[in-house]
Amino acid sequence: MHAISRVGYLFLILSFVACGVKTADALWESAKNDVDRRQYESAIKALEKLTVTYPDSSLAPQAQFLIGDIFMNKTHEIDRALAAFQKVVANYPDYADAVKALFMIGFVKANYLTDYDGAREAYNDFLVRYPNHELIHSVNFELANLGRPIEDIDVLKDIVNAR
Questions:
Q1: Which of 16, 27, 156, 160 is the most buried (most CB within 10 A)?
Q2: What rounded mean pLDDT belongs to the chain?
Q3: Is the pLDDT of residue 4 over 70?
Q4: Contacts of 152 (CB under 8 A, 6+ apart)
């Protein structure tokens, strides 16, 4: 009877612990809801927990990319966005959006950090890895115009003048 009570006690403890652990799907949904409510810090925490707790989940690479997107477009923390996109490429190279993350690395370096050498390196890596991807035209455009002021790029002059 003493052994049964230990097993029962252990089962009870494990049940309580398990109730506090969210699944990858639950963390993903929680993060998306937080983004919708503009609670970006909470969303990022849920996404980071997803990538750490469930690194092999199909949602992990999406979560890592979304972290970069939130930092880039919602909180405007460019260095943190860059680091998040770099994690996508490093940790999930076969993920469909790793190609977008690699493009974003070049884009951030060129257009936000004025790190043209770093941007060129990322874009050239893109050309080698994904020579037939639909973003190849954008990569070539970026490479051709690295460091040029927007006013000096013919196809963008109308946009600048419309402001």
A1: 27
A2: 87
A3: no
A4: none
- From CA 105, how far away is CA 103, in angstroms rounded? 5
Average pLDDT over residues 54-58: 95
What is the pTM assigned to this prediction?
A: 0.81
Please compute the mean of the pLDDT values over residues 51-62 and round it to a whole number.
96
- CA triple 40-45-50, angle to 5 deg: 125
Closest to 92 in 3D by CA, of 65, 125, 54: 65
CA angle at 99 for the pair 93 and 121, rounded to the nearest 5°: 90
What pLDDT is recorded for position 15? 40
Cβ-contact 6, 13 below 8 angstroms: no
Distance of CA 125 to the CA centre of its chain: 18
